[in-house]
Amino acid sequence: MIPNERLEQILQRFQYLEAAMADGSSTEDIATLAKEYSDLRPVAEQIMAYRQLNADLAEAEAMLDDPDMRELAEEELPTLKAALPDAEHALQLALLPKDEADARPAILEIRPGTGGDEAALFAGDLLRMYMRYAEARGWRVEIIEEQATELGGIKEVVAHIKGENVFARMKYESGVHRVQRVPATESGGRIHTSAATVAVLPEAEDVDVEINAADIRIDTMRASGAGGQHVNTTDSAVRITHLPTGLIVTSSEKSQHRNREIAMQVLKTRLYDLERQRIDNERSADRASQVGSGDRSERIRTYNFPQGRMTDHRINLTLYKLDQVLQGDLDETVDALTADAQSRLMAEMEQ
């Protein structure tokens, strides 16, 4: 049962914000008020719906004592009682702590792991899968850095994904993705196992990370690679090294000024991610067991081509529709991972 005092506090705060924004007399920053109001509104609406349902239930129970209204009450009560568990569950979800990065764009990084050329080809498959998923959701994908192999695989790719709730939907993709299939180059028909590592980082905002100019080294170099639209022959590629952490970021668009801007944004995002991981580590000594923890050494998923299945090992979810998954049909998996993460949060709150 959710304490009534807590619900009342939330409603009072919501009403204060509503009044403060309506009359404009508050000395608080209007943008800050608007952000809090926007965040609190769905919670307040769930509280009001939950309270209204309880009021309707109490009224129907009281009507049982009225001979004229008894029959109507007996009709309404089963429906009202059946709706109560769902309303309480919806309210509990609304009250869960929010990841303030959920609404942000994300930086997607994919790198092949064990498996040589086959791992690089699989990394390319993952990139296409995510690009199709993004397209289906109306997001925009911008390739920041891409190094291709001669066989059409990927040595490394960094992409910027912009849209609504990108990080909320993509954050569970961080980890080691494993593939089991017969490579095109395999003449004996043997199944090979290879892997690729995916990292999804919430885009940093200027207020999140402040970088001291003395802490970075910026090098300009000639772009190189296997060819294609992301490679050019001018000295425009930029590499930024963050000296305190050793993080290195490169960008090789045609504009050197644009490259510096992109590389700085990626560097801020990686530093922001490091800080988020540090806080998560302090909050939970057993981060690796948590869905969406972002532990990039954890094997999270297997794509088995001979069996046409995809298995997510964190929640023991197996889907026999590998073709659709690789075409970007990820919502069923993401929804299941989100629900599991919410269940864990609820359990923590109850403890």
Automatic annotation (TrEMBL):
Keywords: Cytoplasm, Methylation, Protein biosynthesis. Residues 222-238 form the Prokaryotic-type class I peptide chain release factors domain. It is found in: Cytoplasm. InterPro entries: PCRF, Pep_chain_release_fac_I, Pep_chain_release_fac_I_sf, Prokaryotic/Mito_RF, RF-1. Residues 282-305 are annotated as: Disordered. Methylated by PrmC. Methylation increases the termination efficiency of RF1. One of its GO terms (molecular function) is translation release factor activity, codon specific. GO terms for cellular component: cytosol. NCBIfam families: prfA (TIGR00019), PRK00591.1 (NF001859). Belongs to the prokaryotic/mitochondrial release factor family. Peptide chain release factor 1 directs the termination of translation in response to the peptide chain termination codons UAG and UAA. This is Peptide chain release factor 1. The gene is prfA.
